[in-house]
């Protein structure tokens, strides 16, 4: 596979024309109000497009389109195998357009182009393909009953699913949600983050090419306070799935109660512990993993290993190893294939990260690396890799999700102390532990309050494994067969025979 070089990516970026319209009922349309908002390239701080600023009226139009498509049955009642063929065709179209989609993620998010191309786009296509292959393998149930009765349990599509996705992995997070929702037979309305609409609008275009009936796939662009809230409050949306902050997740729960009690599935981030014991079987691997899982994607990852818990006897040595790796993460032009640390998504997030760094210093944590910002080619929202040590778990930087390239290191005395610290958090998304002691490994897997626990690795994921959290990290899971079921209603049927 030959990928574009730096000059080619630059030319593609110069030639690229941003989509400015929402996608409703199989057509690209302006917002009914005619209003638009600006998207910004965080690497250049320059405006890239005026995108349709949809509101409740546009959401209502999208819901009517999606409901008509669902009731028409062209998708909802299509044989699962045939739905699967179309989902797999969409996956193929994503791969065919991988360079363009990666460019969109790079320009919108500020992430390095090679991370977008080799991780985001490939994983998004893999999710579509996996659910396309899985859907006709699911079966309903027949229950043991008296001889004159046939009782069954069936799963039926819910109807219209609202999908609200974040800016850190726009296309990937969308595919994690829409693939199982569509596989189950639902119609979807996707609300991308206002910062990052382009790749999802392109996906809508590809969905029509793949064979999705009009109205099954809709994209409503705009701000969360208008378009997102309208989705949450709409009385004819049957289910809502969201990835983003805990505060907004709680808002969607409120919206459900204020409207039609729609099902709400939430993935709301984490402050994830990565525990390194003194008997870690491979210190170099563990240090590389610790660095990669906080500096990849500029640390703008809900599953980032943002709390490094290190056994006291190896604390300084191990933190130094991680810091040396952190020094190799150098901010650069996201379009340069050699760049391994891109720009922060926007000015607000940039300022938020810097305020947390200042808070860490104020509360007495010791900076080991970074703590400052830079520019690339004279512009951009860039934060250098940052590591704090001598952090207490009651400090703000240990409690709150920073969503940036900031690692906080906390020491512990033994495994019981480590688990106590790890669980002392309102979040419970992912966790990791590095040890050669099988008993300690099993104890950690049992006792850590997290939806995913990795042993001698971190954030080891597979599309067949559920991804979700405990506590305020959310409700429900993405990925795996379990995700399909959450977009269905369960029906019991009791038939008495003559």
Summarize the structure.
Helix content is 40%, strand content 22%.
Note the beta-strand portion: 15-25%
Please identify which CATH superfamily of the largest domain we are dealing with: Aldehyde Dehydrogenase, Chain A, domain 1
Identify the CATH architecture of the largest domain.
3-Layer(aba) Sandwich
Distance between the termini: 64 Å
Furnish the topology, listing elements before pairings:
Blueprint: H1 6-15, E1 22-24, E2 27-29, E3 36-41, E4 46-52, H2 56-72, H3 80-96, H4 98-109, H5 113-134, E5 141-143, E6 149-157, E7 160-164, H6 170-183, E8 187-191, H7 198-210, E9 217-219, H8 224-233, E10 239-243, H9 246-258, E11 263-267, E12 273-276, H10 283-295, E13 307-311, H11 315-326, H12 347-362, E14 366-369, E15 373-376, E16 379-383, E17 386-389, H13 396-399, E18 406-412, H14 415-423, E19 427-428, E20 430-434, H15 438-447, E21 452-455, E22 470-471, E23 474-475, H16 480-485, E24 488-496
Parallel strand pairs: 7-8, 7-10, 8-9, 10-11, 12-13, 12-20, 13-18, 17-18, 20-21
Antiparallel strand pairs: 1-2, 3-4, 5-6, 6-24, 11-23, 14-17, 15-16, 19-22
Helix pairs in contact: 2-8, 3-5, 3-7, 4-5, 5-6, 10-11
Task: Walk me through this protein's architecture.
- It is a single chain.
- The protein is α/β, with parallel strands linked by helices.
- The protein has 2 domains: 6-268 and 474-492, Aldehyde Dehydrogenase, Chain A, domain 1; 273-462, Aldehyde Dehydrogenase, Chain A, domain 2.
- It is built from 16 helices and 24 strands.
- The chain has helices at 6-15, 56-72, 80-96, 98-109, 113-134, 170-183, 198-210, 224-233, 246-258, 283-295, 315-326, 347-362, 396-399, 415-423, 438-447, 480-485; strands spanning 22-24, 27-29, 36-41, 46-52, 141-143, 149-157, 160-164, 187-191, 217-219, 239-243, 263-267, 273-276, 307-311, 366-369, 373-376, 379-383, 386-389, 406-412, 427-428, 430-434, 452-455, 470-471, 474-475, 488-496.
- The strands form 7 sheets. The protein has a 7-stranded mixed beta sheet, with helices on both faces. The protein has a 6-stranded mixed beta sheet with strand order 9-8-7-10-11-23, with helices on both faces.
- β15 (373-376) and β16 (379-383) form a beta hairpin.
- α3 packs across α7 and α4 packs across α5.
- The longest helix is centred in the N-terminal third of the chain and has 22 residues, at 113-134.
